[in-house]
User: What shape does this take?
Amino acid sequence: MSGICKARLTEERRQWRKDHPYGFYARPVKTENGLDLLNWQVGIPGKKGTPWENGVFKMTMTFPEGKFVPALFHPNVYPSGTVCLSILNEEEGWKPAITIKQILLGVQNLLDEPNPDSPAQSDAYMLFKRDRVAYDKRIRQQAKENPA
Amino acid sequence: MSVQSDDELMYEDSCPDSDEDGELDIDNDEEVIAEEDDADFNFTDVVAEKDRKKSYEVEFKVHSVEGIVRNQDDEVTHVSNILGIQKQHAATLLRHFCWNKERLIERYMDDPKDVLHKAGVITDDSMIPKFVKVPGFVCEICCDDEDIETLALSCGHRFCRGCYEHYLTQKIKEEGESRRISCMASGCNVIVDEKTVELAVNNEIHERYRRLLNRTYVDDNESLRWCPAPSCEYAIECHVPQASLTSIVPTVECSCSHRFCFGCSLPDHQPSICTLVKRWIKKCEDDSETANWISAHTKECGKCHSTIEKNGGCNHMTCRKCKYEFCWVCMGPWSEHGTSWYNCNRYDERSSQDARDQQAKSRASLERYLHYYNRFANHEQSAKLDRELYNKTEKKMEEMQQTSDLSWIEVQFLRKAVDTLVQCRMTLKWTYAFAFYLARNNHTEMFEDNQRDLEMAVEQLSELLEKPIEPEKISELKEQVLNKTVYVLNRREVLLDDTAKGLLEERWEYQVDITS
Assistant: This one.
């Protein structure tokens, strides 16, 4: 791990511990040799008032990549769990100054506001397009299976 | 004929030299009109031919990299004089406006501050971003807080030198970005200006950055296009707008001799228009192999038209889908086969005839496609073999010089003939893609007549070129080849001319909607 990377992630962790948005968690994985700063376990809560509420969805961040484990039922999440979001893509909206907090908040926003222009899995995308009621029901079920 | 053609050959030979000078001379912006440089074997017509642009040709210019840089400089100087600003700022503004000078000047006159700000230009020297040390600063990106140099663009987001260098190098080197690199802060759209890039990156990266900036002049300009040939650095200027591509096939020829369509960058596809070419290529990629296989290996059930492959067993077929029983050989119903089972001799019986007719009908569209595809593919294949033909011709030319008293220059007609052959095969190839989409009417009949004439002539020329050389008949062969070459070129011109005129007159009717 390069020096910059380590310093940055250490600082990100310090900032996170000082202050982070309600309901989220993010921590490096513990190993025998202490913390593995390149591997984080994070949890993203569904927003209140949406079918996602009361659920916390787990991601593993293996910098610079992150994916949902297990894969999420969502139009913009690939079957592998990888998320299709512009701020996560280096050639689109990603900037060096984006923090972990911003990324997690971005993913939380994406949960209830999928981007129909870049579908990543057919099941969720088709249901979202065809039958919003059934889709919302399925999302509520998923939230129930991933309680806080 | 032979005397005249010798003159002609000498003329032709001296001509490329002067052309080449014109093309190599970087400072020479001489207009190069697309011309059939080999279209005029008839020496007396040369001047008149060249003055007149043919209906299927478009005007274009070839620019070298230096020429492009110079044009850019001219534009920049012009704008900088009009607006009374420094050249570097004029350049940034022009890039921001995609080299639309008129729009830039208009907007600038309305609100210079706003235009400068949006393009990321800072005219006040004291405001130019510089690397400075700020006590107590911690870079948000690398979290370094030691005594480091930092820089902030007009947006005020401050980062350290190391991070700027990393970021810009990545953008320039790996992503090929230049004038669209924005501030590193999340969601900030302020463009990193040229001065800052120069300050932050090393010489090698900066040079690449300048080159990429130069490229944007062509990339952003609708009437400029890079020659798509590998490692060719010329750009072509042509003023045919995208909107008129349904009525013009703007074929241009680069100084590197690559001929391509200015509309879509694909290799020369006259006489077919871009949209039909794209459709055809897609169709061929999707369908050809499958269609060929279906045609060769399957038949259709006489009742429900399911496609059936016979993979073994006897001729008594039972359709899986509709249970219709029929004979694989005559396609007639099995019930009528009586005792001659398993040995069908009923091929001409009425009912089996009907079954086959019906089958033929439903297969017609497939067959129609394959008809055009096979001819298209045939010419493509033949043209691909041209390398071989060139080699063979080379040998023949040597042989001729040895076995007869013809000099080097007197055997050049053979090479010319091969050039013509290859070019005409390319044209023929695309006539089939074009004809496939044409609706059946009298105009199409005429088109196909022209196509047939050209095809026949091409095949005859091809045959002449394949003939072995008999020393005593060389002059006869030469005359035949020369005559045929001229004839072939004339046929090509007739076809291209008629098609181009038809496009302009909107005479052609298509089986598909070309506007979608």
